[in-house]
Amino acid sequence: MNQVKRSFSLLLVATVLFTQAWSQNTPVSTGTPSTNKFKWNMFGLNRVHIQDFGISDQYLDTCTTCGDNNRFLGKANSTVGLSFYNNLSEKVAFSADFGVGYGYISRNNASAADAEKKWSSSARADLYYHFYDSRLQVQPFIYGGMQASLRAGDALLSMPVGLGARYMIMNNNGMITAQVGYGLGLSQRMRNHVNYSWGLYINLSKKKKQTEKTIVIDAIDSDGDGVVDAKDKCVNEPGPVNNNGCPMNDRDKDGVMDEKDKCPDVPGSIINEGCPVLDRDGDGVSDNFDKCPELPGPVSNDGCPLSDRDKDGIDDKNDKCPDLAGSPSNHGCPDDKPKVVEQKKDEPFSMWIPEGNHYRSISGDSLRYIIYFEFDDFKLKDQSYSLLREVENFLKKNSNWEVVMEGHTDLEGDVDYNLKLSEKRAKVGKQYLMSYGIKANRISTDFFGKSKPVVPTFEERLGWMNRRVEAILVRKK
Fold first, then answer.
1. How many Å apart are CA 157 and CA 151, to the nearest integer?
2. Does the predicted model carry a pTM greater than 0.70?
């Protein structure tokens, strides 16, 4: 019957602790932040542990010789000592205790000596988990730990587990703890028991307040450059983090800092380490890459001038009349009105026939049609369809003829990109002819990128003539 009463008493104590914690569920008005960003330590002014063996199955109510030893705490060992408490995080804490005990410690196979009160030494460690916000004055928790006692040369180990609460006092600089649990005997001589504990702690380090002051000081950034004053070597002058908060020097204002600028007093290019890119002939090709730095020339010719005997802007290798000034539209020949030259016996018949912006060259063994494209595009223009229909009709009427589609681009852009663009232009012409029934084996493609310009210039008023596909019809051999 006494055993039932003791069990009921333990349940009542646990219920009272949690009820008190829940009823006082209000934050302490101390200005403590909602998140526990600090760790603090407390020293136990008083720490008491009681191990009660009176309700173990060794001491039954049928004992007639137990006397007062069979009542509540009749078989108990009380330990008083010092304690250290550390708040590890928002909800987790740790304590370590060292103390001296006096009383009964019940063992398996109890002997007569176990009925005698004796002195013992004790060491204990507990780990706590709290359920609520650290600002609350009352904090319920569960705990688990290890306790070792040395009594008359015997080492006795147990593992207490249970629940309890802490009550914060002195503006969070002190606390009172109370807990109850069940001690599991780990050594053969240690009986299972009920464990009661309470303690009084005070915060001696006041580490929390020092940390808060440090945080406030470290957050100051007088010049607003994103580098706090504690790490800023130029507190009153804004500067980047990689220069310790000091401004970067750039005397010539070219975007290259003086420490990396080989020409700090002359504006230059980043790719030239802050020095200006020289182009003595002013042709747009820097001297580093200009094979003729004293003579202006196009990029396509590495900055060297093109040979142009008649000075018509078309280099001699692409000028069909290199000694007569002409226009790009007439391949460097004078812009005479188109005229038909009478065909003589055994001589090829030839003439130039303008077709708006397109031109058709006719000779006895070949026909040449030229279609043009927009900048950086390979879509056919409306004017191109009529010429391609002529090519299609001619091939259908003359089965012994084939066509070669040659793709070209202007001089803008790099070589590889233009080569691919000229390929797309040649293939779009081929696909158009195939869509009208011309077999693929009668259509071949070739592409040259910007390697064969009609007009060696970047000027748009002439450079558009380089964006072309030449459809060359030839008689099969």
1. 11
2. no
